[in-house]
Amino acid sequence: MKTGGQLIVDCLEANGVDRIFSVPGESYLAVLDALHDSKIRNFVCRQEGGAAMMADCHGRLTGRPGVCFVTRGPGATNASPGIHIAMQDSVPMILFIGQIASHAREREAFQEIDYRAFYGPIAKWATEIEDASRIPEILTRAFAVATSGRPGPVVIALPEDMLTSVVEAPAPQPYTPVETRPGAAEMAELAALLGSAQRPFVILGGTRWDEAAVANITRAAEAWSLPVGCSFRRQMLFDHLHPCYAGDVGIGPSPKLAEAVKKADLILLVGGRFGEMPSSDYTLIKSPYPDQKLVHVHADAGELGRVYRPNLAINASASAFAEAFAALPAGPASWAGETERLHKAYLDWSTPPETGPGAVQMGPIMAYLETVLPDDAILTNGAGNYATWIHRFHRFRRFATQGAPTSGSMGYGTPAAVAAKALFPERQVIAFAGDGCFMMNGQEFATAVQENLPIIVIVVNNGIFGTIRMHQEREYPGRVSGTDIRNPDFAALARAYGGHGETVETTADFAPAFERARASGKPAIIEIRLDPEAITPTRTLTEIREKR
After folding, report:
1. What is the pTM of this model?
2. Positions in the chain whose pLDDT score sits under 50
3. What's the topology of domain 184-348?
């Protein structure tokens, strides 16, 4: 006989959960009490959005569901950005929400929300546990749903009285992972399509990858001499210095890379959905009928034929397909010269510029980081023009080194870095954020201090919401409205939290500031005061305004 709260914790432990991210609430005190006697580590966060983003990053880097607990009403709605990210990014996650007591339902009780209705459209599954004896059943299902097919977030509401009720329930057992594998006939057809191709191109994306899968897809690419691109913010799926790597098929790709995708006669799309952002609004690959022959590999049959009609649809996880592809005997590769040309073009494209407007040059800063960051360093970021410096000029080498939302959510980098450093305390974790981006969830820097997680947050401060200002100057030149922001002294803020703070006002300031931050052993913020004119690596705000 156990309480509902005890059963929740028992089920988490049975499914291998060793940490959760939470903001406490009286609605799930019974769970907090049960956690007191468990081995699960509870990372106490400052705001529910940050907690949910930490859970998302945990799922993103491990493939195992990140787990988050929040309280009812405002706590639950604050967590919604993390759920939206996990859904759009196909990341396994489980959000538990404390709920009002059952007797008060349907009366608009204090902080009452119908979570099935609220979260139904943006979660893979949203439910509520009304009978504590069903907790093992529902949690087993939740882990299976979150990880199978196209992974995603599951939301579970926990009525307060259900958590304190004492019931008899079966001992929890771990969920059974669901794998989908390609058939021999499908792999034979893929070999035939490659054998008749003249200009093939591989695009990697989505989730359901692991280190072994990345190694397998690399071996397959080598065997066939295939050019490989990574979809938007999935760059950790292929070594950027590998001779088969052709670049980031993301926002504003290299013109040479975009042309290669358009002119390909066979596209092998593995794991991803290739939505309107990486496809440049469905111009690289047209929807619904691509100009190229298309082989689409996805773990969820519902995604095959949803946006693009493939010539060959392979219902398989990325990891299972990569294993089968690596074992497929390779044929002659008449396109090897094109693969070499595309890799050289990528190296040219990803070499940072040496100059730019203002006293701080981001190009040399990125070049410096490339010389000092180890291959296993983890970089996280949210959304904003500052992220271009990472996506274009950082050369990812290994799996589980990138935490960035394909959904384009701001405020992600700092909480993601906390989760990443907790997972891999021996590795360097660098969060990039714009000033506007940092201010959305920057309070999670306090979580890093509390948990003694020495992340380094690089705040690129240009005093504006940069991406929106760029669009504004292009569409309404000279009519600035709603895009200026006034910021605190970010280095002083870091010290106020108990961390290390640095301010960079010239390019030469950065290297010693970074070394001091790294040597401090504390969570650190390095504020780069960037001229707002340096809005992109190649064009200034003035140039964008005047081009109109």
Report:
1. 0.96
2. none
3. Rossmann fold (3.40.50)
